[in-house]
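subagent[fold] <- orchestrator: predict structure for attached chain, return tokens only, no commentary.
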Amino acid sequence: MIQVELRPETEARLIAEAQARGIGVAQYAGAVLERAMFTLAPAEHAPGTPEEIAGWLNSLAQFSEKIPPMPDEVFSRAWIYQDHD
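subagent[fold] -> orchestrator:
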């Protein structure tokens, strides 16, 4: 059994969400925690050092040379500021 202390506003929202779904608070809290555990990236895979971040950015840019260049008229000053003067 795990006990967790929540801020009052978090606890109130948790109770309200559980009631809206017609399930118990403990069951809903467990489902929320499980979903969070499987949707968040594991910390050991997140880049942290400058070298890791550079490597991650390089892997993202790996095929960027294959992206065709955009014509200059696509990003004109008028286009960028079209919604205001």
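orchestrator: received. Logging for downstream: The mean pLDDT is 82. The CA atoms of residues 28 and 34 lie 10 Å apart.
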